[in-house]
Amino acid sequence: MEDIPVDVGLIYEGERIRKSSMYVDLAGPKSKGAELLLVVPPDEVEDGKVEVVGPDVDQMEEGGRYPFGILIKVAGEKLEEDLEGVFERKLHYFCNYIQGFMHLNSRDIIWCRISKDAAKKGLKLYHVGRVLVNLYKSEFDVIEKIQVTFYTDEKAVDEHIARAREVYEKRDARASAIKDEDVDVFYSCLLCQSFAPTHVCAITPSRSGGCGAVTWFEGRAAVKVDPSGPIGEIPKGEVIDPVKGEYSGINEYVREKSNGTIERVYLHSLFDYPHTSCGCFEAIAFYIPEVDGIGIVHRDFHGVTPFGIPFSTMAGQVGGGVQSQGFLGISIAYLRSPKFLQGDGGWRRIVWMPSQLKERVRSAIPQEMYDLIATENEAQDLDTLRKFLEEKQHPVLERLKAEEAKEKAEEAPEEEQPAATMPELTVPVQAGAGAPVEFTITFKNAKIYAEKIIIRRKE
Ligand code: SF4
What's the pTM? Predict the structure, then answer.
């Protein structure tokens, strides 16, 4: 590669730049930004051109925070608009190949950082653009021409964000025109397995990838141009549960690609077998047992949820490619899906979300539910949330009250029964087998009282 002052390679993909070694922050939660890749006619691309609108790294102050936009235009005979989201997502990976440059998240929630070491070596955004031109062209033969523009000037970034949001809306609206039952094949994305090895995004017309960048249409287009790439086809198979969204084809595929770790997946529920979450989801849906409802928090919200913790803390517990009961990493587009959490009651079960997000997806929320969903302005903790839901007579209260009455009836037996003691449990182990034994004990309709619980690390 031409004169780039830092190394470029896969080994830098997991590099984290801590605050103490940061030269500048670009976009991120305390600033603003967006990334956008567009497929355009060839005469609108000056092949190889890299432009920086606003100050480049050498004109930025150490420790500073700057708004940041990335616009990539590509052209090629075989390119189609449906590929934009997939190529746009690759930006995350290509940027992270650059030593001393960190890229997080996607769309209008990107967050980039340049390290002090890289700035000292002379790394500029111009160089980042040159790397992107080379990587895109070497990985995708179908890209014949490419041009990269970075924005750091505030006014230019604002205009770029507005344009990017229009495009995201258009892509998401197109995806919501068809449903899961209208197609025979779904798609998978394994891009995030580099940091969440058991994570497999199942992408269907009614559920886009967690990062929001890959819809069913984009999955279809990606398979056409790169059949052996990270996006593949999932044969739909049999419908096991049409409401929760369970398909035999997805179960088989996910079982294989997660090396047997994930056995079953519900597309539209956050209980029992929720979809795994990687780490770059745009929002989290979370169960609030105290009111038997579901809250939603997105990455841009910097306050705390009714649990008293912010998005970042919750994200740390949910990601990594595991199935977390009662938690689900989702895209913003999924809030507009007609099948949005339909296995759990859909919008009738939603009790809390940040006001900004509520306004953003206003048109997707059934009219009769809009005023019944609390935001940070009405509910800051579980007590104020319950009070709000009672005032509004939210439908979750009917379920909750029925559950509470049932529990009360069960807790008042005519005569106190002596507690049953567990018989000693012996698990047969084949002599000489040597392998560790794992087993599951299922209690049905049992109440367990424990004086203490000891959790030991599994060696
Ligand atoms: S979140 Fe899903 S769709 Fe998005 S890049 Fe990761 S694996 Fe792919």
Answer: 0.74
